[in-house]
Design brief:
Fe-S_Maturation_MIP18, PaaD-like, Zn_ribbon_PaaD, GMP Synthetase, Chain A, domain 3, about 170 residues, Phenylacetate-CoA oxygenase subunit PaaJ, three-stranded mixed sheet
Length: about 170
Protein backbone atom coordinates (compact mmCIF):
# COMPACT_ATOMS: atom_id res chain seq x y z
CA UNK A 1 0.00 0.00 0.00
CA UNK A 2 1.39 3.40 -0.92
CA UNK A 3 0.44 5.80 1.85
CA UNK A 4 3.74 7.50 2.53
CA UNK A 5 6.44 8.61 0.16
CA UNK A 6 8.82 5.75 -0.61
CA UNK A 7 12.49 6.35 0.14
CA UNK A 8 14.17 8.01 -2.82
CA UNK A 9 10.92 9.10 -4.46
CA UNK A 10 11.37 12.19 -6.62
CA UNK A 11 9.02 15.19 -6.40
CA UNK A 12 7.62 14.25 -9.85
CA UNK A 13 6.97 10.66 -8.72
CA UNK A 14 5.26 11.95 -5.56
CA UNK A 15 3.04 14.25 -7.64
CA UNK A 16 2.16 11.51 -10.13
CA UNK A 17 1.47 8.99 -7.34
CA UNK A 18 -0.95 11.45 -5.73
CA UNK A 19 -2.68 11.99 -9.09
CA UNK A 20 -2.91 8.24 -9.80
CA UNK A 21 -3.98 7.57 -6.22
CA UNK A 22 -6.84 10.06 -6.49
CA UNK A 23 -8.56 8.00 -9.21
CA UNK A 24 -11.88 6.70 -7.83
CA UNK A 25 -12.44 2.97 -7.52
CA UNK A 26 -14.88 1.97 -10.30
CA UNK A 27 -16.96 -0.23 -7.99
CA UNK A 28 -16.79 2.00 -4.90
CA UNK A 29 -16.39 5.54 -6.27
CA UNK A 30 -16.53 6.96 -2.76
CA UNK A 31 -12.95 5.60 -2.36
CA UNK A 32 -9.82 6.54 -4.24
CA UNK A 33 -7.38 3.85 -5.32
CA UNK A 34 -4.93 5.13 -2.69
CA UNK A 35 -7.57 4.88 0.06
CA UNK A 36 -8.48 1.38 -1.10
CA UNK A 37 -4.79 0.47 -0.91
CA UNK A 38 -4.49 -1.05 -4.38
CA UNK A 39 -1.95 1.48 -5.71
CA UNK A 40 1.30 -0.26 -4.80
CA UNK A 41 3.93 1.78 -6.52
CA UNK A 42 4.85 4.35 -9.14
CA UNK A 43 8.17 5.24 -10.68
CA UNK A 44 9.32 7.38 -13.54
CA UNK A 45 11.38 5.13 -15.85
CA UNK A 46 12.52 7.80 -18.31
CA UNK A 47 11.50 11.11 -19.86
CA UNK A 48 7.71 11.02 -20.27
CA UNK A 49 7.52 7.39 -19.08
CA UNK A 50 5.96 6.13 -15.90
CA UNK A 51 5.23 2.65 -14.53
CA UNK A 52 2.43 2.08 -12.02
CA UNK A 53 1.86 -1.05 -9.94
CA UNK A 54 -1.67 -2.09 -8.93
CA UNK A 55 -2.79 -5.02 -6.82
CA UNK A 56 -6.39 -6.16 -7.32
CA UNK A 57 -8.59 -6.77 -4.30
CA UNK A 58 -8.79 -10.38 -5.42
CA UNK A 59 -7.41 -12.40 -8.33
CA UNK A 60 -9.72 -12.00 -11.30
CA UNK A 61 -11.20 -8.72 -10.07
CA UNK A 62 -13.01 -7.29 -13.12
CA UNK A 63 -12.37 -3.71 -11.98
CA UNK A 64 -8.58 -3.93 -12.48
CA UNK A 65 -8.88 -3.18 -16.21
CA UNK A 66 -10.96 -0.07 -15.54
CA UNK A 67 -8.57 1.04 -12.79
CA UNK A 68 -5.64 0.67 -15.17
CA UNK A 69 -7.38 2.58 -17.97
CA UNK A 70 -8.41 5.37 -15.59
CA UNK A 71 -4.85 5.72 -14.26
CA UNK A 72 -3.46 5.80 -17.80
CA UNK A 73 -5.96 8.49 -18.77
CA UNK A 74 -5.32 10.76 -15.78
CA UNK A 75 -1.53 10.48 -16.14
CA UNK A 76 -1.74 11.18 -19.89
CA UNK A 77 -3.75 14.30 -19.01
CA UNK A 78 -0.92 15.34 -16.69
CA UNK A 79 1.75 15.18 -19.39
CA UNK A 80 2.94 11.57 -19.25
CA UNK A 81 2.77 10.22 -22.82
CA UNK A 82 3.86 6.66 -21.93
CA UNK A 83 2.09 4.98 -18.99
CA UNK A 84 2.48 1.31 -18.15
CA UNK A 85 0.23 -0.19 -15.48
CA UNK A 86 1.34 -3.57 -14.17
CA UNK A 87 -0.76 -5.91 -12.04
CA UNK A 88 1.18 -7.12 -9.00
CA UNK A 89 -0.20 -10.09 -7.08
CA UNK A 90 2.47 -10.45 -4.42
CA UNK A 91 2.13 -9.54 -1.68
CA UNK A 92 -1.62 -10.01 -2.02
CA UNK A 93 -3.98 -7.18 -1.16
CA UNK A 94 -5.81 -7.42 2.16
CA UNK A 95 -8.55 -5.29 3.65
CA UNK A 96 -5.95 -4.03 6.14
CA UNK A 97 -4.64 -1.94 3.21
CA UNK A 98 -7.76 0.27 3.30
CA UNK A 99 -6.79 3.58 4.89
CA UNK A 100 -8.51 5.06 7.94
CA UNK A 101 -10.05 7.71 5.66
CA UNK A 102 -11.23 4.94 3.35
CA UNK A 103 -12.89 3.09 6.24
CA UNK A 104 -14.57 6.30 7.38
CA UNK A 105 -15.83 7.00 3.86
CA UNK A 106 -17.21 3.47 3.50
CA UNK A 107 -19.18 3.90 6.72
CA UNK A 108 -20.46 7.34 5.67
CA UNK A 109 -21.51 5.81 2.34
CA UNK A 110 -23.55 3.16 4.17
CA UNK A 111 -21.13 0.24 3.80
CA UNK A 112 -19.83 -1.45 6.94
CA UNK A 113 -16.05 -1.28 6.64
CA UNK A 114 -13.96 -4.40 7.21
CA UNK A 115 -12.43 -4.89 10.62
CA UNK A 116 -8.66 -4.53 10.86
CA UNK A 117 -7.22 -8.02 11.14
CA UNK A 118 -3.46 -7.63 10.77
CA UNK A 119 -0.60 -6.65 13.04
CA UNK A 120 -1.75 -3.01 12.98
CA UNK A 121 -5.08 -3.93 14.59
CA UNK A 122 -5.55 -2.20 17.91
CA UNK A 123 -7.83 -2.99 20.79
CA UNK A 124 -9.40 -6.27 21.81
CA UNK A 125 -9.60 -9.13 19.36
CA UNK A 126 -13.15 -9.80 18.19
CA UNK A 127 -14.40 -13.16 19.47
CA UNK A 128 -17.56 -13.14 17.36
CA UNK A 129 -18.50 -12.04 13.89
CA UNK A 130 -20.61 -9.03 14.94
CA UNK A 131 -20.73 -6.44 12.19
CA UNK A 132 -21.75 -2.91 13.16
CA UNK A 133 -24.60 -1.34 11.18
CA UNK A 134 -23.33 1.77 9.35
CA UNK A 135 -26.77 3.40 9.75
CA UNK A 136 -27.53 3.09 13.49
CA UNK A 137 -24.37 1.51 14.96
CA UNK A 138 -26.06 -1.63 16.29
CA UNK A 139 -24.12 -4.90 16.30
CA UNK A 140 -27.38 -6.84 16.02
CA UNK A 141 -26.98 -7.68 12.33
CA UNK A 142 -27.57 -10.78 10.26
CA UNK A 143 -26.14 -12.11 7.03
CA UNK A 144 -28.60 -12.14 4.11
CA UNK A 145 -26.16 -13.17 1.38
CA UNK A 146 -22.42 -13.89 1.31
CA UNK A 147 -22.25 -11.84 -1.89
CA UNK A 148 -23.69 -8.42 -2.62
CA UNK A 149 -23.24 -6.01 -5.52
CA UNK A 150 -19.60 -7.13 -5.83
CA UNK A 151 -17.81 -10.30 -4.74
CA UNK A 152 -15.86 -8.42 -2.07
CA UNK A 153 -19.02 -7.38 -0.20
CA UNK A 154 -21.70 -9.30 1.70
CA UNK A 155 -25.33 -8.24 2.13
CA UNK A 156 -26.46 -7.86 5.75
CA UNK A 157 -29.51 -6.50 7.59
CA UNK A 158 -29.63 -4.64 10.87
CA UNK A 159 -32.05 -6.23 13.33
CA UNK A 160 -32.40 -2.91 15.19
CA UNK A 161 -33.20 -0.41 12.40
CA UNK A 162 -34.13 -3.14 9.83
CA UNK A 163 -32.03 -1.46 7.11
CA UNK A 164 -30.08 -3.64 4.69
CA UNK A 165 -26.44 -2.74 4.09
CA UNK A 166 -23.30 -3.94 2.37
CA UNK A 167 -20.36 -5.16 4.44
CA UNK A 168 -16.91 -5.02 2.88
CA UNK A 169 -15.65 -8.51 3.79
CA UNK A 170 -12.37 -8.90 5.66
CA UNK A 171 -9.56 -10.43 3.70
CA UNK A 172 -6.22 -10.96 5.38
Amino acid sequence: MVTTSPVGETPLERELREIAGSVPDPELPVLSLAELGVLRGLRVTGPGRVEVELTPTYTGCPAIETMSADIEQVLHQHGMPEVTVRTVLSPPWTTDAISADGRRKLKEFGIAPPRTTGPTASGPVAVDLAIRCPHCGSTRTSLLSRFSSTACKALRRCESCLEPFDHFKELS
